[in-house]
Design a protein that fits this description.
The chain is α+β, with helices and mostly antiparallel strands and 171 residues long. The chain has helices spanning 9-12, 15-20, 62-69, 83-91, 100-103, 143-148; strands spanning 24-29, 34-39, 42-47, 50-57, 72-77, 108-111, 114-117, 122-133, 156-167.
């Protein structure tokens, strides 16, 4: 007989804390513009027999149109010490900062046509597989739309195949 002990999601898999507590940067380019934004909602798993990352972007965000037009995007995780850059990228719009990476104190790097912050310790290079908008009528918990949306700005969910995982060498 098994003896069970309870874990928090973050104890079970560090992806929960990397996304939800540490935050990530979603970066995309449409070939003309590139931008990055902070996100704390998303997931990593397996769908359609492929490793996938799920990210969500509100239509009001400047990065939304870029990610919508781009075939690929990046999800990047920064090491400790970059909280101010993450806050900046969550608070400020790329509409106001033509080089939001630099304005946040970050250096843009590229994997092919996909931008990401060079300061990241882990970068997922992803190819979009599926996108759809969240709809209020589809929530089983009716408190979520009221608590998280106030009737507008429902995210688009992007399911992306993880093509590459780039990781800095540990010292």
């Amino acid at each position: 007989m098994n003896t069970w002990h309870e874990l928090t999601p973050g104890e079970w898999d560090p992806a929960f804390d990397r996304i939800g507590k540490d935050w990530m940067l979603i970066s995309a380019s449409d070939g003309e513009w590139e931008n990055t934004m902070t996100a704390s909602w998303g997931g990593i798993g397996v769908m359609w027999n492929q490793p996938v990352a799920v990210c969500l972007i509100r239509p009001e965000r400047f990065t939304f149109a870029l990610a919508d037009r781009a075939g690929r995007l990046s999800l990047a995780f920064l090491p400790d010490g970059y909280r101010d850059a993450l806050k900046f990228c969550g608070r400020e719009s790329g509409r106001d900062y033509p080089d939001k990476f630099a304005a946040a104190g970050l250096t843009v790097a590229h994997e092919g046509d996909v931008p990401y912050p060079a300061e990241a310790d882990t970068v997922l290079i992803c190819r979009k597989l599926y996108a759809d908008d969240l709809r209020p009528a589809c929530f089983f918990d009716p408190t979520i739309p009221d608590h998280c949306y106030n009737g507008s700005g429902y995210h688009r969910v992007f399911v992306c195949r993880i093509e590459k995982v780039l990781r800095t060498q540990e010292k």
